[in-house]
Fold this sequence. Notes:
It is a single chain. This protein is α/β, with parallel strands linked by helices. The chain contains 18 helices and 13 strands. It has helices spanning 2-18, 22-25, 28-37, 47-55, 91-107, 127-134, 139-142, 149-160, 178-190, 195-198, 220-229, 252-263, 289-292, 340-343, 366-381, 384-405, 454-463, 487-501, and strands at residues 79-80, 143-146, 169-173, 199-202, 234-240, 273-277, 296-300, 313-317, 419-423, 436-442, 466-467, 469-471, 475-478. Strands 2-8-7-6-5-3-4 form a 7-stranded mixed β-sheet, with helices on both faces. α1 (2-18) packs antiparallel against α3 and α8 packs parallel to α9. The longest helix is centred in the C-terminal third of the chain and has 22 residues, at 384-405.
Amino acid sequence: MAAEASDSSFANVCADFNVSNLEAASNVGHWLDLLSEATANGSFCDVSFATHLDENDPIKSFRQDFHIPVNPKNGKQAIYLCGNSLGLQPKPTGAVVQGEMTKWAQRGVDGHFEGDIPWATCEELLPELSKDLIGAADAKLEIAFTSSLTVNLHMLMGAFYQPKGHRNKILIEAAAFPSDRYATSSQILHHGLKPEDCLIEVSYAEGVTPNVDNYGIIPTERILKTIDDNKDTLALVLLSGIQYLTGQFFDIPRITAHVKTINETLPEGQQIYIGWDLAHAAGNVPLQMHDWGADFAAFCTYKYLNSGAGCLSGIFVHERHAHKSMEQLPRLAGWWGVPFANRFKMGQQFQCAPGAPGFLCSNTPPLLVACVKPSLEVFAAAGGITALRRKSFLLTGYFERLLKRMKLTSDTAVEGTKRVIDIVTPGDPTQRGAQLSLRVVSTSADSGAHPMTMKELYGRLESRGVIGDTREPDIVRISPAPLYNSFRDVFDFVMTLKAVLNE
């Protein structure tokens, strides 16, 4: 009877958590304490704890809607914790894509105007489905889907990076995703300027050389101070929503508001634009890009949005720019940026569609729309980003605490431990998404000929059926995606990691 009562208490705590708002859910340590106290059989570190969490997960059934990769060595499902790099394929996607192939085979060019995904307007199916994920006010005006992420960043910077005299600098974070640095540097070069003069990289500490070997958590105050120190020369601020290497969730509303406050003091035409690369944020954390007031943003769909490798990117352009002329926002133009009502009139003068659709250039590939649409529909069915973020708080919080309870981190290790890991990602659940970035550290007890490297650690994990990823110089990224990952996935990974570290 005592065990039944305890099981009931565990379920009651889970029930309370599952209806909590996100502010309350983010206090994940409190919830894990309550769940630990209510555990009937075994300790926090026992598999039964993970099993009970899975049993009380209101969105656990959505795992069945995805293809889980199989470990070729034993035929069992892999421990797939790589949603930050490539999300899993929703099971409906194959049939939707095949439907478009069949339409092409049977209807040819008429497929442009027939079926559930008419090719001539296929991109118009996606903005409303992504409205809540991005936080748009008018989805059809502020969101559009086309091309790939870096191409879209170039298209957006073509309009929003307008160097004038001394106001010619772009600010990015140090150790930014390389493609973002390449894109900003090449934009500067395109305007006849030099990146060494015009690219500002804000690092995690004063005096740190900005490069990939010098990464760290960047305090918001440092970002704001760097903006202040360069407010008379900045033309554009372009930051990641979530930093790909550390997993840090930047304070988008505060940083954006700070730039807007500065702009209120600047003369007309001298404002600083602010944009966001949401590659690791879209589908991972709640976003309110309209309310926060960002000028623009770009996001990919193949990570947490599960559309497949290299699939479509989306863009957000705030509605205050919706009706600006080509002279005000001189974007690169193409015929898909013309309103649909006039597109096939074949006019020789470009007529810009209002809002984000005016940044489209060529027709959006319908087969890629067929990959994005089913995943966005699964998101909606699961309760949207609020339900997923709530579970993510608990899932990643459980992951972090289990690492510590198992004495696998440098701050919890016991004497005689050979190797441990440092968690690079912020410990505050509100300052991260689903990802924990891990770095292996050898202790004095490790008598090996050389310390275990990132690649050696991941190679041993991979040989045991774990799928995560690595990033230079020394990071293993593990990301439990709440839409399809279970608490048992996390438990199995931590047990595997423990075995590998002690080899």
